[in-house]
Design brief:
single chain; 364 residues; alpha+beta; Chorismate synthase, AroC fold; 8 helices; globular
């Protein structure tokens, strides 16, 4: 079950970086949802390689085919199979790395765990695996938007040492995010782009941070104790390749405040109670409180770089590795739709769980 995510809305992804294709099977999608390939393709186009000089130059159209679960543009309630062919495959680029585990990559741990691995491109540890997540997440987003009015928007908030200024989370849109190739607020885009290009020119890489906001989330989503909503989000985000950190609301910065400064006082907001501030990040006690949910995900610098590194092969012999192949100098611009997809998969699952508990309503 290591490749399956979710409880009621279940997603199983499949495929390796340089096999004939990758994709997902979605089980638990409600019937009679209007759905066609274009609904999914929009997010895949934001994730695909070759979008700009700041990404890998692997050329993949990443065109999705819906193989099952949809008829006459409507979901049937049966499993939806999604397939994206791999067309620009170059497994020969990785021949040198068959016997040399890349520093900080999953080559070593996969080999030790299974006794075998897909040496070309990293196999299941490659970011190509996230195609299935993004395709399934697009379906989840459609359910959330059309049936429950929920919205998920993510953006790049840091690249290396370059960070964005404070962003109005209530106003930021995907259109604004996509206005620059870095997928960040325009004021920070030139400095971030320059930092990524400098790393690429040096055959090196950079990490960064993606921030995400989920709007119009109703009160009551999430389960007490082990399935707290922030725990499910953390699980989802830290399952994305290259992630190394997750924080929600005030996060680690909140530890520097006293409770009197950190607490979110309640106020009347229309027909419900809300909070004056939102340091909780929209979740209290593991359950959504009706405020926007916001969190940040840290991505490490990509492990595969062209610069020569002193390391060792699987036999323990000292070698110098200068990785070949096509790789992102910074993953965060392409990680934005992946973060959105995983947030949507979590939210659609907890929405369906709450609706089942309350006989179709999101409120008891």
């Amino acid at each position: 079950m290591s490749s399956t995510f979710g409880t009621l809305f279940r997603v199983s992804t499949f495929g390796e970086s340089h096999c004939p294709g990758v994709g997902a099977v979605v089980d638990g999608c409600p019937p009679n949802l209007a759905l066609d390939a274009a609904d999914i393709q929009r997010q895949l186009d934001r994730r695909r390689p070759g979008q700009s000089a700041m990404t890998t130059d692997r050329q993949e159209g990443d065109r999705v085919a819906i193989l099952s679960g949809v008829e006459n543009g409507r979901t049937l309630g049966t499993p939806i199979a999604l397939l994206v062919p791999n067309r620009d495959q170059r497994p020969g680029d990785y021949a040198e790395m068959a016997q040399v585990p890349r520093p900080s990559h999953a080559d070593y741990t996969y080999q030790m765990k299974y006794g075998i691995r897909a040496a070309s491109g990293g196999g299941r540890s490659s970011a190509r695996e996230t195609i299935g997540r993004v395709a399934a997440g697009a379906i989840a987003e459609k359910i959330l938007a059309e049936r429950y009015g929920l919205e998920v928007v993510a953006w790049v908030s840091a690249v290396g040492e370059v960070s964005t200024e404070a962003v109005d989370m209530a106003a930021i849109t995907r259109q604004a995010v996509d206005a620059t190739p870095v997928r960040c607020p325009p004021t920070a885009a030139p400095a971030m782009a320059a930092a990524i290009q400098a790393a690429r020119d040096a055959q090196d890489s950079l990490g960064g941070v993606v921030t995400c906001v989920c709007r119009n989330v109703p009160v009551g989503l999430g389960e007490p104790v082990f399935d707290k909503l922030e725990a499910l989000l953390a699980h989802a985000m830290l399952s994305i390749p290259a992630t190394k950190g997750f924080e929600i609301g005030s996060g680690f910065a909140g530890t520097r405040l006293r409770g009197s400064a950190h607490n979110d006082p309640f106020v009347q907001k229309g027909d419900r109670l809300g909070t004056l501030t939102n340091r909780s990040g929209g979740i209290q006690g593991g359950i959504s409180n009706g405020e926007p949910i916001y969190f940040r995900v840290a991505f490490k610098p990509p492990a595969t770089i062209g610069a020569a590194q002193a390391t060792a092969d699987f036999a323990g012999r000292a070698v110098t590795l200068a990785a070949k192949g096509r790789h992102d100098p910074c993953v965060v611009p392409r990680a934005v739709p992946i973060v959105e997809a995983m947030a949507a998969l979590v939210l659609v699952d907890v929405v369906l769980r709450q609706a089942a508990r309350c006989a179709g309503s999101l409120h008891p």
